[in-house]
Structure formats: C-alpha cells, structure tokens
Amino acid sequence: MIQTRVPRRRLAAAVTTVLTVTAGAALATAPTAAAAPATAATAVTADARPTAGGVISFPQADRIISAGPTGFLSGERRWDHSYYRWTSTVDGTTTNLPEWYSGYRGGASDTVVAKEDGTTRYLLHDMSSPGSAPTIVDQPDTKLYWAGVVGRTLVFSSWDVQTKVGGLHLIGEGNRADSKRQVTGLPSNTRVQTVRALTEGSALVRYTSADADTERSYLAVVDVATASVVERREVGVSAYDTDVALSGDRWVWVDAPTSTHAKLMYATRDGSGSAPAVEAADLGDSVRPHIGVVGDWATYAAPGGATATEPSPRFALNAVSLADGSTVKLLDHASSTVPAADGTLLVRGGTVDHGEGIYRIALGADGRPTATLAVTTGAPTALTLYTSATPPVIDLDKNDGQALLRWVLSRTNAKGSVTVRHVATGRSVRHDFAKAVEYDGKAAVDFRWDGRLPNAEGMKESAPSGDYAWDFTASPLNGIGPDVVRSGTFKVTRTVGLHDYTDNSTPDLLSRDAAGVLWRDDSVKVASAPQPYSTGRVRVGGGWQIFNQLEAVGNIAGSPAADLIARDKDGVLWLYQGKGDGTFAARTKVGGGWQIFTHMTGGSDLDGDGKSDLVTTDAAGDLWFYKGTGSASAPFAPRKRTGWGWGIYNQITATGDLAGTSAGDLVARDKAGVLWLYEGKGDGTYAPRTRISEGWDTFTHLVGIGDADRDGRADLYATGPTGSTFYAGTGDAAAPFKSGAPGNLLWSSAPVDTVF
Fold first, then answer.
1. Distance (Å, rounded) from C-alpha 126 to C-alpha 146?
2. Contact 625/640 with Cβ under 8 angstroms?
3. What's the distance, CA 278 to chain centroid?
4. CA pair distance 229, 192, nearest whole angstrom
5. pTM attached to this predicted model
6. Are 587 and 567 in contact (CB under 8 A)?
7. Which of 38, 183, 607, 687 has its CA 20 to 30 A from that of 579?
8. HSE (side-chain half, CA atoms, 13 Å) at 435
9. What's the pLDDT at 661?
10. C-alpha dist (Å) from residue 742 to 62, 609, 654
C-alpha cells in the first residue's frame, strides 16, 4: 500500500501557477562564446526572489525522474537504500512509495511503475489518485529488459549476444493477446541504449546497429499507438549510453566517442534525417551529462556537483542557444532534467541564492531561458554552518583533559581548519580536515582537542585556564559557493594544583643552577607515556643565588597561581607571587628573623581551611606551624609549636594528602636514610609516624610535587647526584608510594643546587 505523508504546506490553486511558465527569478549571465561553458557569477533581480507562499516544500531528493500533469517522481539514494516519492503540484503533498529493488520509473504522465520483487509483475500506480490500487502487468519473458515507461505503456528491449538480434517491445495494460507488440521500423540487429518519453504516446530512442564492418548509432521517434518508428536520423557512436532530447524542430544528443571527451550536438528535423550535425557545446570530460530542450535553447550539466570533491564549471546548468550560440548560466549545479507537458523543463539542482530543489526552466519575455524555484527541499546549496557545539565552559580536569568540539555543516564535501587559541598568550593549536563526516543527516567536523597547546619549544603542554577563541574555516570541495568563516569563544577551567605555576593544573618543577638562574619544568602526563615528563626547560630569571632557602608554598597570597618564598642570607623572608603564566611578580617582604629555621616546607593545606600552610623546624628540633592567611601583605598567622624532637631529620617535605584522609601529610627523612610518614590530623598536628622504607639518603631533594601522573593522588619527586626518581602515590598509608620510576622532569638541565 502506498503511504501518504502529511503535507508540509497546503497550497491553494496558485501552486499550479508556480509550475507554469513564470517570469522572474532569472539566474542569467551575459552571452559568452558558444564553445565554452559560462563561468560568470550568477545575477538575481531582487523582485524575482521566490516567496514562501509560492514554493512547494518536499523532502530531500537526489534527482527528478519523471513529471506528469499533476506532479513529479523523485528519488534519493541513502546508503544501501533508495527512496522514491511522488510530489503533487496540485496540493503540495508528498507520497512515499513502497521500496522495491527495481526502483520506479515514469514517462510523461502521472503513472509510476515498479517491478515487484521476486515476481514477474509490474505495478502501475496512478499518482493522480494516490490511494488507488495499482494495475498489474505480468511480463514473464526473461529475455526482455525493462527499458522505460511511456504513459502507461511499458517499454522493453531485447538483445541476443550470440545471434546479434534485438529489438524494442511495448506492453500495455490488460495482458491481452495484442498488448505485447514489437516496434517496427527498427533493424533486426537493434541494440537499444536509451528510451526517453516525449509525451504519453511517444518516445525518443537511441540505439545502435552493427553489421560485419561497422557499428552505427541512431535516434528514432517511436509512436506508441502504432508501435512504429515515425522518424529517424543517424548520430555518432558513443562509448556510453548518453542522454537525448527532442524539440519541435531539432534533434539534440550527446556525442561521446571516447571515455574522456564529449560534445553536445544538434540537427534540424527536416524529415529526411540527413540534416548536418552541429556542435552546440564542448562538454569536455563530462561524458554523461543530462540535457534538455526549451524553445531554441539546449540545457546541459554534469551530474554529481552537489557531492563532488573537486570543482568543475561543468556542474553548472547552462543553456546554449541553438540559433546564435549564446549561453546562459541557469543553476550552480544540477543532477537531472525532465521535460514537462507544457514544454518547459524541471531540473533537480540548486543555486547559492535560492538553495536546493526543483527548478522550472522556461523562456522569459525576452526569449531567453530563466530558472524559477518551484519546489524546495529547504537545504542550502552554499556550504552552510548550522551549529557550533562548543560549550561555553570546558573543564579540562574532566574527560582525561580532553574536549570534543563540533561544528555541523550542511554537507560533507568540505575541507578546512579549526584553530583554538588561548587569548592571553596567543598560543594556539590547529586541526585541519580534508572532509566532514556524515552526522545525523548532515556533516560534522569534530576536533577532539587533547587539552594541550604547544609551548615556545614546540612541545605540547597542558592548556592553561582562561579565555579561548576558536576560528573555523571551511571551503566547498565542489567549488560551489563561498567559504564558511566563523569565530567564537569559550572558557577553560582547571583546578589549581600544588606546584602549578602556569595555571594548567599540572605541576611545575622549579630548580636553581650554580649560576643562580631559576628554571621551570612544566610536567605533562599522557596515556602513551608511562611517567610524567617535562615539556621543556624554561628560564625564569637570574640572580637567585642571593637566597639560601627556596620553597614552593602553593597559593598563599590569594591569587589563583602558586607562589614561592625565598630566604636571603640575612634571614629575611620574601614572597614571590605567581602570576599564572610561569613567572612571578616583584618580591614582597614577609619579615626578618627566619635564619633560625633549619628546614621549611609548604604547599599543603594542613588544617583543612583550603589555604596552604608552612611548616618549619629550628635548631632545637621544634616543629612550628604557620597557618596560611591568603593575604599577600601578611601571608602567615603567628607561629604555633606543634612538635619537638624533629632535629633527627635532615629533610622534611609537605606532600599533600598521601594517606587518603582529607588533611595534608608530611614525610621526613632521618640521618640513616629512612623515610617516615606523618599523617596530618587536619588541625596542624600529626599522628604518630609510620615507617615507609630506607635508602632515601641517596637523594638530595625530596619534592612533594602534587598529582603529576593525573591519577588523583599526591606524588613525590626525588633528585640526587645519580639522577631523579618519580614515586607515584597510592593513597595507602601502609605503602604510600609505588616503586620508583626514572624521573623525566628535569629537562636537559645543567647541575642544580636546589630543586623544589
């Protein structure tokens, strides 16, 4: 049963007027040389634009197949299925036709025909009455090939490879004895190539006949009522089954003797079939164009322009005058052309100005052809950006630090690029695409950003927080229409971590060399690398040899970035606020008298108030707690003694949470090289120590670097004369670290005297 869709737009009787010869909506170019396709830009008069009330809407279709008095048949190929629809030009409704392997054909009438799968039955549907049952014609002769439809008459061809005998056969309704007729006037060795309905009672046939020496090609007009050839002329032999057309006084055909070169030809119908053939246009490598005739003009276009991946001027529908050779560009691309009963043409195609649909080609008041959009699919012909699915805020601490950015285009045959740029620094990453990907009936360009940006050395490091801009450019591969150029913005958020001086949530390792130069190594951890590694050694500045103690203390001054403190030889403590770009603001004096302390460590929240704190030990072995205030002018509250007997340790390091509790912890190394864990209680004090392991005396610096391997647990980085070792945290107090792995965070560094 045929299923009828709800009409997209009900139309009044004016719809039939739209599909008659209409003035305006002309897309015409100035005349050019007769042998060359027009390539000038399309020009449209403002008052000629079709109105919403005068254009039928119908679903997407690749091609128009046939047209009758009350509508037209269209087809769409989608993956492994083909869809056929009948659109009424009377009320604007579209009817979905049942799917058959053979597809559907029509021939200058409201009848569409399909072969029923697995049978010898042909179903004739009268689409002027969509709900009616089909008429069935049974044709069991397997030697006949279905070649076309003329009105309600089926046309079959036959060809025997062995005997070289063939012909053309007409089968009408009713399966009467006389309903099957062989067309007379054709030679016995006829091999049919093309059958095209002219009216409900006539067809234009292209066929070849071969004798022992040569093969000839002909055009013939067949009268269905008499089943006979009433007119014929010889044309050039073509390598392909090419298109044909006929006007009241001219034959028009495509001559393609080779597979790489074709010509549009015509000849006068003088009754004898011997009028000379004339070249109307050089078609180049467009060996299978679709053609049509309207008045003294012939139209031609190479199909496939909508989905092509290379530009060609032959995709445009052009019309050439068979009287004076002038040309007119009508459409930017066209897939198929069929004649209408009123002498006009219906063409499935598109223009940049009016979009995709069925255009009627008719003669204007000046006798030149014009194109009027009669039926629209609603889709644009110009490459169009529908949406940009870029979230306004991207949290790069989620989804393994990655983000999916998507732009949806109107079609897949587009190439271009996406650039994501950090506004503050100008650093950017670019993604080039050679073609979009099919997505939900449209086309998607996906940029799966890994959340990284190249640094000055060209290595990729984790992208910082802040404002970002994206620039999207797409060019149509078929050369039809302008490029798409769009821009937008979004924000990146990240959690500021321990030792993060570049606002990108990954720890930075600071070091000072013997010349007093301060260096920074930003870390990154990717799935393909077993350990975090440095993205390059960056010089922060010189003159740091004046300090005898340097310590990373996290964010103690209230700004988003981590800070550091430095003690000079006079015991004055200085604060260097991190700027979030890997550099530091001018120093601020914290206070004097700090020479009494043998060790200082910070960067961990020890009392659970969300602020980094500082821990020191003095020569007497007392442990002092400096609560962080978050104020740059007075970053620490007055000290509080929280322990004694710490003189046995030669290294104390704040590590953050190692044991799985909410409070920060400490590790301390004694003079025998044994490392001990002190779990923080959350009030600036600690639980009794737990032995971790021995052998740590080989290291000169133990750095609580934070979560360098991005697994959510605090880690430890150890350096010494023989190299560096990375200890990944486990979250287990009984065994807080995994086995050590080679450290890769001091990038090609010169010997250093301080690492923190």
1. 19
2. yes
3. 46
4. 13
5. 0.82
6. no
7. 607
8. 11
9. 80
10. 61, 35, 22
